[in-house]
Amino acid sequence: RNEDGEGGSWWEGRIVGVKAKSPEFLDSPWERYAVQYKNDTSQLHHSPWELHDCDSQWEHPHIDETSRDMLLSSLDKLEQFSLRNRDLIERLNEVALKPEFINRFPVPLSPEMIESRLENNYYRNLDAVKHDVSVMVTNATSHWGKKKELSLKIRRLSDSLTDILSSL
């Protein structure tokens, strides 16, 4: 990107070496590739996600649209058809924005965040969605664990989400 944060252009170069950054982590992709840029004799080290092959068209891997749309539709139905779920989902979305929740959990996920990630093709596969749902449920259980009524609602919501994901 340019200094103003807009656009930018690719610098042309070639990979002149591949070597682990550290002997302790031989499989690590971090700064594994030595790159020499056009009109420059020095070599800079890069991670694979920093490089781009201009000759290939690469599409970011994501959940197929049919599964994604079915999942979004199922989540919407889950919220719309059950007042009990709607109340809990609203509470989960609200608490995920509060500083005490954000600071307590390393990944403060909410139904709204998971839905947004689905809509924006964030997930590469359904296992990643399952993982985020699991983290969200674990966070909620930990946060409200002593409140029996909420714990029961969380368990029911978790079961419903598991059923939805298992059906895909």
From TrEMBL:
Domain Bromo: 98-143
Leader peptide range in chain numbering: none
This protein's UniProt keywords: Bromodomain
Entry-linked Pfam families: Bromodomain, BRWD_AD
GO biological process, one term: regulation of cell shape
Any one GO CC term of the record: nucleus
BRWD/PHIP ancillary-like domain location: 9-56
Superkingdom as given in the UniProt entry: Eukaryota
InterPro entries: Bromo_WD_repeat, Bromodomain, Bromodomain-like_sf, BRWD/PHIP_AD
Protein name per the record: Bromodomain-containing factor 2
Organism from which the protein derives: Anthurium amnicola
